[in-house]
Amino acid sequence: MKTIAQAVKKLLPYSPRRGVRPLRIPNEGKTREGVTCLQVFPPDSFTFSTYTSLSGNRDFPPYTAETPEYKVFVIQSGKFIFGREEAFTRKGRILEEISAQKINPLTGKKLNLNPDRHIRGKVLMLGLSGLENGYYHFMVELLLRWWIFRTSGLKADYYAFSSALPFQKEALGFLGIREPQILEAEPGMIIQADCLLCPSLVNNFRLSHLRGYELYEKIHMPRWSKEAYSFLLGKANRRTEAPDKLIYISRNRSARRRILNEDELLAILKRYGFETCYLEEMTFAEQMNLFASVRIVVAPHGAGLVNLVWSREGTTVLELYPEFYHDPSFRILASALNLDYHYAICKSPGADSAAPAEEDIQVDCLELIDRFLREKTAETGAAPGNGKAC
Fold it and tell me: For strand 340-345 and strand 316-321, is the pairing parallel, antiparallel, or unpaired?
């Protein structure tokens, strides 16, 4: 016979002492506490290729990582905190699988989950706790969550995610989301929907440390991501027949990771007809169109390189790293999308006094870059541009 304490524990989502309890839905089609999960993509593997720097070094060893299954969780009378990534059941239990952290930081917290607002209908929740306001995270993590949902065949009446920034608003049209379908609410509001739809997160990371800073390094990217970007590119009618642009992405107008001797680098690039582009001045559609027509890209490490998702297989990329900060995001993207990836690790004067992600770059391998471009332009037959700005 169950004790009174056991019965109360089952009925209450949390107690004053224990806080919010986690819930895991391990099996497809199985329903627990009004939650059903539908598998969309099965488990797979990701292979990170080995790459050689312009100086002939192999600084990043190859590896293979397992990628998880990707699902959509269907939560009857589900709740969420607007602006955050977590999903809760009607009784207030938190879905264990929906967290960018190894253990959701809200687990065990004492939360008031009484809803501020009830939505009649189906709500697709795509929030990433603010990460979606970064261009890279929006492009890789939010868009791929939307693709999981779309592939599932499910339908939504409303969509919940941050859409205040210009590139977010513009992207809605490419996703086929109409403005009246965007759920507007104050950050932190507790929303309850008749049916809450929550795709798996695509975030993944391992921790590393540099000069006392904790860094989050991506591990893998799903194999099916190519399908998602090809679909969006085709929908936007941005695929060109013969991509031949040569572009350099400048960070000269950024506050960090600038090329300190950019004039010397530009002198070489202009000889080959490279156009200099400032992506912060371009719309979402303009960036899509640019990278769909590119053949060779040279750029310091930065979020703008995520636009390589619009480029064709085999597109040549040269990423210029600071001396110590070697974030793997675009090496991983290049592996997933079969790009012709190359890199150079440059110098970073004054790096000891800067956060790793803020190191500026002194390009000390100009002769190697000159030789690399001479070989690549001859090899690809890329047409020279006018050497001006995009």
Answer: parallel
Q: Is 95 helix (H, G, I), strand (E, B) or coil?
A: strand
Adjacent-strand bridge partners of 237: none
Position of tokens 């995610």?
161
> Measured between alpha carbons, how far apart are the two ends of the chain, in Å?
74
What are 60-63's contacts with CB under 8 Å, separation 24+? 60/326, 60/328, 60/331
pLDDT above 50 for 98: yes
73, 97 contact by CB (below 8 A): yes
Cα distances (Å, whole numbers) of residue 53 to 79, 319, 343, 346: 48, 10, 5, 11
Q: Is 187 helix (H, G, I), strand (E, B) or coil?
A: coil
Could you tell me whether strands 275-277 and 206-210 are parallel, antiparallel, or unpaired per DSSP bridges?
unpaired
Give me the mean pLDDT over the 121-138 stretch. Answer: 95
- Chain segment 202-248, per-residue pLDDT in tens: 999 999 988 888 999 999 999 999 999 999 998 776 555 667 899 99
* Dihedral sign (CA 336, 339, 340, 344): negative
Residue 119 to residue 121: CA distance in whole angstroms = 6
Tokens of 135: 């261009």
